[in-house]
Amino acid sequence: MTIDTAQLVAVIREVLAEHDGGPPRAAAPSTPRPGVQGDGVFADMDGAVNAAAAAAQEYRRCTMADRRRFVSAIREVMLKPENLDNMSVQAVIETGMGNAEHKYLKNKAAAEGTPGVEDLETTAWSGDEGLTTVEYSAYGVIGAITPTTNPTETVTCNSIGMLAAGNAVVFSPHPRAKNLTLWQVRQLNQALRAAGAPENLIVTVSEPSIENTNKMIAHPGVKMLVATGGPGIVKTVLSSGKKAIGAGAGNPPVVVDATADIGYAAKCIVDGASFDNNVPCTAEKEIVAVDAVADLLKFEMVKQGAYEASAEEVRRIEALVLNQKRTGPDTGWVGKPAAEILRAIGVEPPAGVRLIVCEVDASHPFVVHELMMPVIGLVRVPDVDAAIALAVELEHGYRHTAIMHSRDVKALTRMGREIQTTIFVKNGPSFNGLGIGGEGFPTFTIAGPTGEGLTRTRNFARVRRCVLIGDLNVR
Ligand code: NAD
């Protein structure tokens, strides 16, 4: 069956407009033009990297005020209502994953809140020997590999941080997000040109593929690699022999203990685990609840839009959404709405259903593996110590994200110390840890494996020391 894209956009737009005055509703999205070169899109990887290298050279001659202007131009073009609209709607259509309204929020947060040039703080020492400064300086060309799950958010966020640090960037998007990423790279190039930036500070290829990604990784013109994706690509960049940042997979557990405000915890978990249909790497992927509150938690979750699957329904969901080896999701079901999953197992979805909760044991694939869909396993444990221990086990040492609902400060502290994740959200939905509704800046590249954490401009820069002997110390 061929899908009429225009018709699909119209339907999604209508649904979004009905919902809560939801944001995306501007003019029809521009039609992506795959295969057409120009505006940062190149026919082959060699051409793309060479153009970015020339741009990086020219960029060195620009002032910090120029950089600030270019970063502002990126923010402005990505925040145009029709562009936010296009990215949110088209991402759902092209990747087949997620929720356009939530993608709108993520795209907006990335464009508004990603740190810029101000993140490059200089350190100085002055004294009898003179003056020494330590500055953040560009790498040159960065190769950035982006995921299907946050395709445009990652490009916006990486573009701001990498250009603010003085670099040019070559994007290697997931082939499933090709058209939208090409469109975005073109928009960014047009905006940068209008702001007077060197040509080709942001480039990509017209046919993204694993082969092209590998060419980019190996290209001598690329000085640093940043991989946002699953374990395979993180391992690949870390084995490249180049400076690399790896932002890899997670399996965030949410622990609920007996002291938690259960009604509030239930709302947070349903909000967080259904956000963008659970595709964010930070979203709650399994619940570990102490026995004393597990039933109440499920009851409250149902009030918030969750559907509790019976044991028989859990078996049908398993057969539908797991891969054949039961080692992860069937990619066809990643990021699909809860209602679609329920319909596919023969259950008429209740109005407004957002999440499917399945009580299972601790070895079940729904809690062991990252599903990235609004199906969440719940495991019942006797007490908070057992909950923390199981959460640590289910997080698999990814050091990514964990969430806990508790009013026991000692228990919260213990969980934080034991689980060692890059993000630990206490008493809120997971997306609060991304700078959406919580304090702190947003990012869509969370580097647990290499330790940068929530990446920011300074992570895309080299540290250089400049020493002047004997003078410029005025004390
Ligand atoms: P993915 O690993 O399938 O793809 C990510 C990118 O890597 C894509 O551009 C893909 O084309 C490329 N790629 C994958 N394998 C490759 C290989 N062998 N050689 C060359 N290129 C390769 O991931 P996805 O499905 O797009 O995204 C979901 C995964 O990413 C989840 O595991 C999620 O947790 C993780 N993720 C992590 C972060 C983070 O900041 N830590 C952010 C978003 C997504």
UniProtKB/TrEMBL annotation:
Pfam family, one: Aldedh
Aldehyde dehydrogenase domain mapped to chain residues: 43-429
The organism's place on the tree of life at top rank: Bacteria
Keywords carried by this UniProt record: NAD, Oxidoreductase
The UniProt record lists the keyword NAD: yes
Region (Disordered): 20-39
Keyword NAD: yes
Biased amino acid composition, Low complexity: 23-35
CDD domains reported for this sequence: ALDH_EutE
Xref: Gene3D superfamilies: Aldehyde Dehydrogenase, Chain A, domain 1, Aldehyde Dehydrogenase, Chain A, domain 2
InterPro entries linked: Acetald_propionald_DH-rel, Ald_DH/histidinol_DH, Ald_DH_C, Ald_DH_N, Aldehyde_DH_dom
NCBIfam families referenced in this protein's UniProt entry, alphabetically: PRK15398.1
Protein's recorded name: Aldehyde dehydrogenase EutE
Annotated source species: Georgenia daeguensis
